[in-house]
Amino acid sequence: MRRKTARLGALIITVGLALIAVACGESARDAIAPTTSSHEGMIEGSVWVADEEGNSLTVIDADTNTAIARVTGVEGPHNIQAVPDGRSVWAVSGHEALALKFDPSTYSLMGAAPTGSEPAHIIVTPDGTTVYVTNGGDDSVTVIDPQTIDVIATIPVGDYPHGLRPSPDGRWVYVANAGGTTLSVIDTSTNQVVDEIEVGQKPVQVGFSPDGRFVYASVNGENAVAKVDVASRTLVDKLEVGAGPIQVFVTPDSATLLVANQGTETNPSRTVSIIDTASFSVVDTVETGAGAHGVVIEPSGRHAYITNIYENSVTVLDVEERRVVANVGTAARPNGISFLAAAPIRPPAFEIEIDMPEHEEEMPGMENME
User: Is 131 exposed, middle or buried (0-12, 13-18, 19+ CB in 10 A)?
Assistant: First the structure.
């Protein structure tokens, strides 16, 4: 596999937006926005963003809140997930129906595995031993061994599965079935569905509280968030939020839930709802950017990162102070987002182009292609 580099001028990321747009050959809409210096040097790690229509992955240094790399050639990446040990990052190619494994130290493609039709979200279990991918086109979840990059199971789930996440103890994977009204519960020891939980119209994504007691689901069709008791697998409450909620994420102390409200392209929302989990009430609403979509919170709980799908940017939110502290430009239609808890390695050039595998023998996992 070949690895190409281009556009060295894009390394000049401290100059004005207009100069960056010229140097990188990008529009000002995609250029890197200024950051707030007072929040530099607080976090070690990187933020990985799936630019669905940009056919790329943008990598942001969390220490400086600036984009340091863009991996191009990834066709239609919808979602992305860093592995807990920091040694790999997984993404889905919606156009090619592939799960892709990347080395974050070299930005190179390590392997690829086939998925089902219209793959959307990808997750890795907390122990790093199993990868799960939702396939909206055939109502299934693909299960992958991350070491061999082989498909080991295909699990039928509900109608048009979209978002999914594992429980903190790794025993369960909850799947939001966006074409219906349920969450499918997968037992990771058997890779079988053991329950279906009714939560409301068009659940899009789920988020566990780190204490493992509750799972929250964005109920997009009702502009609401559902609260499910994990022990009893029952819906215990529902709360109205902003228009068109998409992704949800809980702070490490389980005390606060963030909900990104996307709205629609014709009538975009641009807010994040901040929810106190104890009272299960909205305590604040913060404006981020048009089409707030993906959300992730770094391990300290201080900062959240939100993709703005209609503005081609990522907003950095101070969760404690409930205010925006930075905005970082991405490529077109940033969607999924994940935090890698390892200091990023700045590549020699901002843009790194990969070659997608074309033949079964080219990469690990590709021998399973039909």
Answer: buried
Distances (CA, A) of 255 to 57, 191, 211, 249: 31, 30, 10, 11
| Range(s) of the domain holding residue 219 | 3-368
- Each as own residue / partner, the long-range contacts of residues 279-285 (CB below 8 Å, 24 or more positions apart, any chain) are 280/227, 280/237, 280/239, 281/239, 282/239, 282/240, 282/241, 284/322, 285/242
The secondary element (H helix, E strand) that includes residue 23 is helix 17-24
Comparing 108-117, 200-209, 282-291, 351-360, which segment has the lowest mean pLDDT? 351-360
191 vs 5, 139, 143, 209, 317, CA distance in Å? 40, 15, 8, 22, 36
Q: Residue 263's pLDDT band (boundaries 50, 70, 90)?
A: very high
Judge contact between 307 and 293, C-beta under 8 A: yes
Q: Distance between CA 37 and CA 19 in Å, rounded? A: 20
The CATH number of residue 282's host domain is: 2.130.10.10
| 3-state secondary structure string across 109-130 | EEEEEECCCCEEEEEECCCCCC
Query: Could you report how far apart the first and last alpha carbons of the chain are, in Å?
Result: 21
Return the sign of the alpha-carbon dihedral for residues 13, 54, 69, 249.
positive
Which conformational region is residue 239 in: left (phi greater than 0), alpha (psi within -120 to 50 degrees), or beta?
A: beta
| Beta strands, E only, 130-267 | 131-135, 140-145, 150-156, 161-166, 172-177, 182-187, 192-198, 203-208, 214-219, 224-229, 234-240, 245-250, 256-263
Rounded to an integer, the average pLDDT of 310-330 is 97
Residue 323 confidence class, pLDDT cut points 50, 70, 90: very high
Read off the pLDDT of residues 54-95 as tens digits, 9 standing for 90 and up.
Answer: 999 999 999 999 999 999 999 999 999 999 999 999 999 999
The sign of the torsion formed by the CA atoms of 83, 86, 87, 93 equals positive
Q: Spell out the residues 6+ positions from residue 310 whose beta carbon is closer than 8 angstroms to its own.
A: 265, 268, 289, 290, 291
The whole-chain average pLDDT of the chain stands at 89
pLDDT, position 359? 45
For the chain, the domain total comes to 1
The H or E element containing residue 31 is: none
Tokens of 208: 């566990």
